[in-house]
Design brief:
Layout (H helix, E strand, L loop, with lengths): L2 E6 L4 E7 L6 E8 L3 H11 L2 E8 L11 H14 L5 E5 L3 H11 L4 H4 L2 H18 L2
């Protein structure tokens, strides 16, 4: 079995999370400058077996697509072209940023540490992945 890699896509930074090889535990991987994202993913899958990408699906409260979906669709086309052998699934990512911030508070991070947007993105990716794993 390979890993499942979750992507919390952003126009500036993208949070990444992965499962263990048994696909049981979701852990934050890193946050990558979005301009280097495809290169990072290609390098990662050359070193680790990845069975699937899980990409956040941003929705409004009324269930319509978020404005950022336009950018995500563009990225998904590039991803499919670069790594066509790895399937992509989408997961509703509503509230993940709020939940990530609350997780940081609950874990005792100081206010200065909670301002680290890269960490919020990585935690958001982890929450997306946990949500995906829980759906089985």
């Amino acid at each position: 079995m390979g890993r499942i890699l979750a992507i919390d896509y952003g126009t500036k930074r993208t949070g990444l999370a992965v499962t263990d090889e048994m696909q049981i535990i979701a852990s934050g991987l890193t946050t990558v400058d979005t301009k280097q994202l495809l290169e990072f993913l290609a390098d990662y899958v050359s070193k680790e077996k990845v069975d699937k990408f899980v990409v956040g699906l941003p929705k409004q409260m009324d269930n319509t697509a978020s404005e950022s979906e336009v950018y995500i669709q563009k990225f998904l086309k590039q991803l499919e072209k670069a790594l066509p052998q790895i399937p992509v699934e989408r997961v509703d990512e509503r509230f993940t940023s709020k939940m990530a911030f609350q997780t940081m508070i609950d874990s005792g991070l100081k206010k200065k540490q909670r301002k680290n947007k890269a960490l919020v993105d990585e935690i958001s990716a982890t929450l997306i992945l946990q949500s995906y794993l829980a759906s089985f």
